[in-house]
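Write out the 3D structure for:
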Amino acid sequence: MNIANRILGEVYFITITVVDWVDIFTRPKYKHIILDSLTYCQQKKGLKIYAWVLMSNHLHMLVSVGQGHTVADVVRDFKKFTSKKILAELDEDVQESRREWMLEHFRRSAAGDGKSAGYRFWQDGYHPEAVWLLDFYQQKNPQGKIRELRNELNQTLNYSIRNMQDTLHKNLLTGNEMQREKFEAMGKQQEALVKSTEKRLDDMRQMVEEKLQKTLNERIGQSFEIVRSQLENVQKGLGEMKGLAQDVGGLKKVLSNVKTRGTFGEVQLGALLDQMLSPEQYEANVKTKKNATEFVEFAIKLPGKENNNDTVYLPVDAKFPKDVYEQYQDAYEAGDAALIETSSRQLEITIKKMAKDIHDKYVDPPFTTDFAIMFLPFENIYAEVIRRTALVEMLQKDWKIVVTGPTTLGAILNSLQMGFRTLAIQKRTSEVWNVLGAVKTEFGKFGGLLEKVQKNLQNAGDQLEEVMGKRTRAIERKLRQVEALPAEDSQRMLSLPELTDDEDDE
């Protein structure tokens, strides 16, 4: 035997058959189990498949195996795995019409051989035949059969080609004729459709143009009216903005003057004091120091420590550091750190100077309180100052100055007003006590008079009971035997006026 025959001798033709030739592989899911198992054997067990065909009840294959494996071992594992898998799938497939029939075959086959219990799927063995180069080929294809098959195949193929050509020619002629007729009909239908469509489009275009023209005229008129109204509003707004700009410019011009700014702060401070306090609780333009010539803008009148009419003044002065604050704001908006530091320091210096000025001019204990109020007329300036805690503490410690804004001043004034009310109540306490003493004296007299009136009323009641009780009952006893006359007769006899409804009610 040559080398070629030895190599081909490692290839086997095997057949694996289902018991009783049951045609189970007509169902796709059982086919897929076979294919998956063959793929696994190729990948894991060294199985080489050169050709295969799966029939309804058996499997043919040309196979060989790699080194370390045998065909018998691979076929054994293949049959064992696929048998369990297919039987389990068949047992669960309740929709299979032949399920019970196939399971009965597999059960009977298992009982017949006496080897296995339950079910038997594959027949024993796999009929391996070694594939030799010439012997096996001649066995499967005897001499001369190939030539006959080739001739028969050629004749069949030629006949089929001729029939196909004739059929194709006839179908082509028929198709061309039908196509021509369809095209003619479609052309006529298309022509009629085009004419109808053109007419409808003309009608629609005319109608749309009319409606568009009407709608356009209406919308244009409405739009012009809206635009005219908006232009009037814009013109009016421009006039208001122009007036506002003039007002802002005038306000800016006014506030640029130092004296005017002081007057503005003074006016705002006076308005707040007028709203919160009565006229007798504060004074304007007060000389708080005996030997000084300066007059504080406002001074709140506080009672002295003794019970006399001495008055202690609380100085309140308005300050408006507009220029310095604007420089600080401009530096902050510009983002210049050095300029911010410089303007911030200048603002603190200005506030300190104003506080020292108020303290030196207006604070003079015991004629005044030992502290004064510096009023900042705008909340943003007040917020910037109060944010600097160290500065506020320095003002209170060194110069006894309390910084207030419009809102905080109102709170301080409310506290002072409550103090005034408490003081008034204390002063009127003695008067109330004297009035209560007088009321007590008069109430004693009033009680004696009430007692006399009570006795008189009691005596009158006893007399009335004597008249209305005993005498009335005696008269009624005498009149029981007397027959009563009608009301009209009695009135006529006694010459009494007729009683009205009001008198009857009484």
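The chain has a mean pLDDT of 77.
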